[in-house]
């Protein structure tokens, strides 16, 4: 499975938007970069679908442009005017060459879902590898309206329950992707993020 971050060269604030190439070309989140559809077209001219981890602006700002450019179908957990398919908990969705389980992971956002496959995890903002607060396992912020640290902690627990040991790569909504080594697994990163979230301290000093 080939995964490309099509917003990697962004100069403005955006999420990581991942093109997953393969039998079912898919984009995980759309980001906010004007012209992101042109970056996607450098890799494929047949984008089948866009799947959303959640609908915060930095993840959907250029969604319409991508859908229009490729006539792609939209998969999302919560309502959206252009949604073609609802992503219910424990449903499955095809991304590239792999089947992913939809795991409902709210806390950072009420509509947040993660995608757990055999070898990869698309975790959105519920857990990231590095984000300026922590360098080796961090969690989504929960200090804004509609967010909940307690619910995010439950979501991290749920994610660990659904995570097979065969998952060796984590693609988060912000920061760098993580690829397992002999010394550290994806599970290790999530458990570290969970432990930090459970301390219930402000994530950032100005929170």
Automatic annotation (TrEMBL):
The keyword Hydrolase applies. This is MBL fold metallo-hydrolase. Residues 14-174 form the Metallo-beta-lactamase domain. GO terms for molecular function: hydrolase activity; metal ion binding. Keywords: Hydrolase, Metal-binding, Zinc. Its cofactor is Zn(2+). The lineage of its organism: Archaea, Methanobacteriati, Methanobacteriota, Stenosarchaea group, Halobacteria. InterPro entries: MBL_Glyoxalase_II, Metallo-B-lactamas, RibonucZ/Hydroxyglut_hydro. SUPFAM superfamilies: Metallo-hydrolase/oxidoreductase. Pfam families: Lactamase_B (PF00753).
């Amino acid at each position: 499975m080939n995964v490309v971050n099509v917003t990697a060269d962004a100069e403005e604030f955006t999420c990581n938007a991942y093109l997953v190439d393969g039998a079912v070309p898919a984009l995980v989140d759309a980001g906010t970069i004007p012209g992101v559809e042109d970056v996607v077209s450098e890799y494929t001219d047949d984008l089948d679908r866009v799947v959303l981890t959640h609908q915060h602006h930095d993840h959907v700002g250029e969604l319409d442009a991508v859908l229009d450019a490729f006539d792609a179908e939209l998969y999302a957990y919560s309502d959206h005017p252009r949604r073609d398919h609802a992503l219910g908990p424990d449903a499955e969705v095809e991304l590239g060459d792999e089947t992913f389980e939809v795991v409902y992971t709210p806390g950072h956002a009420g509509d947040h879902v993660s995608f757990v496959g055999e070898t990869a995890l698309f975790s959105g903002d519920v857990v990231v590898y590095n984000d300026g607060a922590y360098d080796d396992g961090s969690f989504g912020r929960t200090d804004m309206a509609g967010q909940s640290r307690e619910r995010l902690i439950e979501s991290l627990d749920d994610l660990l329950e659904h995570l097979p040991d065969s998952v060796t790569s984590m693609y988060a909504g912000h920061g760098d992707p993580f690829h397992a080594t002999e010394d550290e697994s994806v599970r290790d990163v999530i458990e570290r993020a969970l432990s930090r979230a459970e301390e219930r301290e402000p994530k950032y000093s100005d929170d």
